[in-house]
């Protein structure tokens, strides 16, 4: 019996997903896609989950697609790559971005191709000092997918996004932080403790408001200022009706720590 490609643990409002093909640097297969999508679908409807932590087992985060998987065959019997992308990677990124809880990614090693873009789809990315990021697609004659052509220009600017995509050069975790691609770099031995602590902190915060903040920031790229002001108004109206808002104000006035329920 083979080990599951995706591990899930739930503890005190924090869901931890671990990509679990360490012998293959957690590269994607069709089976792994199915398992990860099923877990994300499960978490989306679990009101006890208030933060998600995503990481990889072993010495790598995710090396992208496993090129030995049957879906990657070439020649006369090759599958329609566009259909494969739509069925697997696009569904995965959409499910991840649709989550209404904070998503923290702990990049513990190489993040290549779709693995790099999976990390960039998360809300807060922490990386070990030994980690690296690479848009490896051009090296095998493909185009960045999994949202890479959307995330990269917004995070690092068009010039750097173009060069990273065309050249396929590996960049260090420190460079990724300096360019604004990720949030923070940590010594390897500190990565998971910091990531778990951050996830636990966020799981104690006003979850509804955090979800609305995500919604607002994700919408800003396609909005005019006027449209964004209208969205802020509507989201603030929703947030102000939540029990956590009432608790936050009461705690502030009483000079005590707030006890948010996520509602």
Describe the 3D structure.
It is a single chain. This protein has 263 residues and is an alpha/beta fold. It has two domains: 6-203, 2-enoyl-CoA Hydratase, Chain A, domain 1, CATH 3.90.226; 207-254. Helices cover 45% and strands 16% of the residues. It has ten helices and ten strands. The strands form two sheets. A six-stranded mixed β-sheet has the order 1-2-3-5-7-10, with helices on both faces. It has a four-stranded mixed β-sheet with strand order 4-6-8-9. Helix 1 (30-44) packs parallel to helix 2, helix 4 (148-156) packs across helix 5 and helix 8 (207-219) runs antiparallel to helix 9.
CATH class of the largest domain: Alpha Beta
* Overall 3D shape: globular
**Low-pLDDT stretches:** none
Number of DSSP-assigned strands: 10
Give me the CATH fold name of the largest domain: 2-enoyl-CoA Hydratase, Chain A, domain 1
| Total individual domains | 2
Question: What gyration radius follows from the Cα positions, in whole Å?
Answer: 19 Å
Percent in helix: 40-55%
Biggest sheet architecture: 6 strands, mixed
CATH architecture of the largest domain: Alpha-Beta Complex
Q: Give the name of the CATH superfamily of the largest domain.
A: 2-enoyl-CoA Hydratase, Chain A, domain 1
Determine the number of helices (DSSP H or I, runs of at least 4 residues): 10
Q: How do the SSEs run, as a string of H and E?
A: EEHEEHEEHEEHHEHEHHHH
Proportion of strand residues: 15-25%
